[in-house]
Amino acid sequence: MTDATAPAPAAPAAGGKRRSLLEVDERTRRRNAAEARFRLYGIVAISVGLLFLLLLLGSILFNGLSAFQQTFVQVPVYLDPERLDPEGNRDPEEMRGVTTFGYKPLLNEAVYEKVQSLGIETPLPEPAMAPLLSDGAATTVRSFVLENPDRLGETVEFDLLASSRVDGYFKGRVTRDSIARDRFIDAAHLDLADAMNEAGTMGKQFNLSFITGTDASDNRPEQAGMGVSMIGSFFMMLVVLILALPIGVAASIYLEEFAPQNRITDFIEVNISNLAAVPSIVFGILGLAVFIQFMHLPQSAPLVGGLVLTLMTLPTIIISTRASLKAVPPSIRDAALGVGASKMQSVFHHVLPLAMPGILTGTIIGLAQALGETAPLLLIGMVGFIASNYPDGVAAGFLDPNSAMPAQIYEWAKRADPAFYERAWGGIIVLLAFLMTMNIIAIILRRRFERRW
Amino acid sequence: MTFVKLSASALAIAAVSASAAAARDNVQIAGSSTVLPYASIVAEAFGENFEYPTPVVESGGSSAGLKRFCEGVGENTIDIANASRAIREGEIETCAENGVTDIIEVRIGYDGIVFASQIDGPAFNAFEPADWYRAMAAEMPMDGEMVENPNDTWADVNADLPDVEIAAYIPGTKHGTREVFEEKVLLQGCEDTGAMAAMEEMGMDEDAIEDACMAVRADGKAVDIDGDYTETLARIDANPEGIGVFGLAFYENNTDKLKVATMGGVEPTVDTIASGEYPVSRPLFFYIKKAHIGVIPGLKDYAQFFVSDEIAGPYGPLAQYGLVSDPELGATQEKVANEVTMGESM
């Protein structure tokens, strides 16, 4: 029996009608409906994705944008020579003897006088002005005095940081209810802050030092900035770029163009793909064991961080480089070889330049991945580190202990004062800005230079 | 070839930088995350007021810090270990094996450990160490036998406590705080409830009794928190009936979210802890390698600055942050000034 003798399809007979292309029958309707449903699913999937993206971006911006503004107090401070330079020689070396603790009463007086001169009534006595100002305010004034010893005796107008509680009040984080049991600040301070805000001596300004400044200790969140950890991240990325790009590209060129196809190269290829999927914390343990415990490189140094991240980025770069080398058509190689070029000449003069945009894109995406990585840094001491010193030179940049941007964000998120929480969100905005810039550069490179055959 | 040149220069840079790794001019500190905020406050003020660079402070836990401290003497080891507990005999031995023989112990003050619940949750105003033992113990003696902890709610434990399920978030074993919790709360409670005596009658030896007293139930009513206090806070935020263990300083920064519980009828404040009325507190320490004094610039100045009245005194920034200042600070200052090591008498 063959199919030919099987009974003919009964469809036309069953309906009793002939099919027409102009009329939509039941089956076509079902097929069209299925397609419409599928499109709908697709749209729903995309909108859910977009919704989450918007939620994420929205909450980051909502929580973090306030970190870029900070409350400052404008106060004229009388630089009392008797207290700031008891010896009277105007010698900065001697004046160092007066510590920041010696400056604090001076600031309280200055704020109190300013309040009096504005005609604001407050039940608070002079020493109670301290909770309005940041602990860092005394440092600002002290470093000004040490740099300009000749201005002692003058009254100088300063822009001083307000304390984190006052700053939180203007940002809506601190309310009169929430400070009911707070021992650092009273409602009277908030009344005073309101009055000073109205008088124009206290208010929010753009805070550049959040981006450029150093990290601060736990009792002055208002002063903390990302600058130092940003430098740490920069030096790490430099190490990754310098090491991962040449090693990765050389490895891929050899594997793709020169290596014989045999079990050993197969084994290597499989392992490179496996490495790309290894969780990053594993590289951290490796870094701790090899670079710190065996090679005795300094702990918490961006050099070590960069080395660890290089290991993590290499597979990404190798895979993307090999893909872009593969995408160069064999005719290019054949033509080069055909006019007498050596294998190496054909690769370096013809194939590599054509594959370059793809390689660079892969590298930038690998770098962006490494920039946002925290887990491996945990083990080499770059997390839980207070980034308070700018490195003083290139070698120090690689070797002095430092943090990295994602590690700094993590560090802020776990501190006690809720004011650090806002800074953690702000830090995420800065980090995202870097990642987006890198990805945009990658896209531009691809659009501009990539060739299709 | 460009790539050859590039990789060669990269290797050269790595080699040069590795050899430049010697000579350190900043003090390096690691250890307890409880001491970290205090150490960073001092380090910051030290960097501002002295010519030396700001000391480098890392956290990682008391045990991890002391382990690194005991790795040896030299510029690539840390100078100071912060600890929220006293150094152990075993650690001193390890130190000695690695050549770290002269250690200066500096007590900086006291830290209160507070129990707090969500601000909107029920009030826990009648805690005694005995209640915590009854609520947390894995097994307790009953009629001459060890039985599994039968208590499900706080009211089962003590009728004065609210009738809510037991859900306690206690520090994990890697924290120094856990040790204080075990000794000052669980062990104390074990004794107060008479469980200890009962176990003795059952013929258990001393070590077994201690272990049994400090064993925490594993049925989900007691949760070990290995992270920081922020993690405990997040758990409390999610569970209105939960109660967590915090440091005094952390609680004081979050009074708008947390309601503190009394212990033995005393509310924890800087004053009650300093006077010893509030029972659950512990001393905080840092340990200095004497061999590094004079080698690492600023090390002794940092230690002296740390314990000076301006900083660690009752009106200094540390007390303001939540440290309970040490009434015997003067003796500590003298000890640091004379570089008196452990085992040496003044």
Automatic annotation (TrEMBL), chain A:
Gene3D superfamilies: MetI-like
Pfam families: BPD_transp_1 (PF00528), DUF3333 (PF11812)
Membrane topology: Multi-pass membrane protein
Keywords annotated in UniProt: Cell membrane, Membrane, Transmembrane, Transmembrane helix, Transport
Domain ABC transmembrane type-1: 230-442
Lineage top rank: taxon: Bacteria
Keyword Transmembrane attributed: yes
MF GO annotations: phosphate transmembrane transporter activity
Transmembrane stretches, start-end: 38-62, 230-255, 275-295, 301-319, 351-372, 424-445
Locations listed in the record: Cell inner membrane; Cell membrane
Gene Ontology CC, one term: plasma membrane
Listed CDD domains: TM_PBP2 (cd06261)
Gene Ontology biological-process annotations: phosphate ion transmembrane transport
InterPro entries: DUF3333 (IPR024573), MetI-like (IPR000515), MetI-like_sf (IPR035906), Phosphate_PstA (IPR005672)
First-listed, main subcellular location of the protein, grouped into a coarse class: membrane
Family (UniProt): Belongs to the binding-protein-dependent transport system permease family. CysTW subfamily.
Entry protein name: Phosphate transport system permease protein PstA
Species lineage: Bacteria, Pseudomonadati, Pseudomonadota, Alphaproteobacteria, Rhodobacterales
UniProtKB/TrEMBL annotation, chain B:
Signal peptide extent: 1-22
Domain PBP: 17-310
Keyword Lipoprotein on entry: no
Pfam family, one: PBP_like_2
Keywords noted in UniProt: Signal
PANTHER family: PERIPLASMIC PHOSPHATE BINDING COMPONENT OF PHOSPHATE ABC TRANSPORTER, PHOSPHATE-BINDING PROTEIN PSTS
Name used for this protein in its record: Phosphonate ABC transporter substrate-binding protein
Originating species: Rhodosalinus halophilus
